[in-house]
């Protein structure tokens, strides 16, 4: 079974995320033993950011790393685990919140595909890039 990075690469709609993970030097981490839960924004989610945002992040590796690690939670968190779980602390160090009242939301992002199993964790596809409070 492929790991998180291999799964994202083969899916085809995470090219911006994969490029960002490579630029931030997180490939080895997210290919490691884990387990990790990744809330993975699609290329369409990155496209919703203001023009020039992705390019400026790729030029600011510390900020890019903070944003990317804000999408990762240690351990395997499946959709069935989320009801009754109001939040989780990300690898970046601050919390994301969950709302399962109508589907599954992580902060303001909607999970469009949940529980993609990988060899070192689980991926949940989201429609919005999560930005930690500064």
UniProtKB/TrEMBL annotation:
<feature type="domain" description="FAS1">
    <location>
        <begin position="1"/>
        <end position="130"/>
    </location>
</feature>
<keyword id="KW-0732">Signal</keyword>
<dbReference type="InterPro" id="IPR000782">
    <property type="entry name" value="FAS1_domain"/>
</dbReference>
<protein>
    <submittedName>
        <fullName>Putative surface protein with fasciclin (FAS1) repeats</fullName>
    </submittedName>
</protein>
<dbReference type="InterPro" id="IPR050904">
    <property type="entry name" value="Adhesion/Biosynth-related"/>
</dbReference>
<dbReference type="InterPro" id="IPR036378">
    <property type="entry name" value="FAS1_dom_sf"/>
</dbReference>
<dbReference type="GO" id="GO:0005615">
    <property type="term" value="C:extracellular space"/>
</dbReference>
<dbReference type="Pfam" id="PF02469">
    <property type="entry name" value="Fasciclin"/>
</dbReference>
């Amino acid at each position: 079974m492929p790991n998180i990075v291999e799964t994202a690469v083969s899916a085809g709609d995470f090219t911006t995320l994969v490029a960002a993970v490579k630029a931030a030097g997180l490939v080895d981490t997210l290919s490691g033993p884990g387990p990790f839960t990744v809330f993975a924004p699609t290329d369409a989610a990155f496209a919703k950011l203001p023009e020039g945002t992705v390019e400026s992040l790729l030029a600011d590796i510390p900020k890019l790393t903070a944003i990317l690690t804000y999408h990762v939670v240690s351990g395997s968190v499946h959709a069935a685990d989320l009801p009754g779980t109001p939040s989780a602390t990300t690898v970046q160090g601050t919390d994301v919140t969950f709302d399962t009242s109508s589907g599954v939301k992580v902060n303001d992002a909607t999970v469009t595909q949940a529980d993609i199993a990988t060899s070192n964790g689980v991926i949940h596809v989201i429609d919005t890039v999560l930005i930690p409070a500064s």
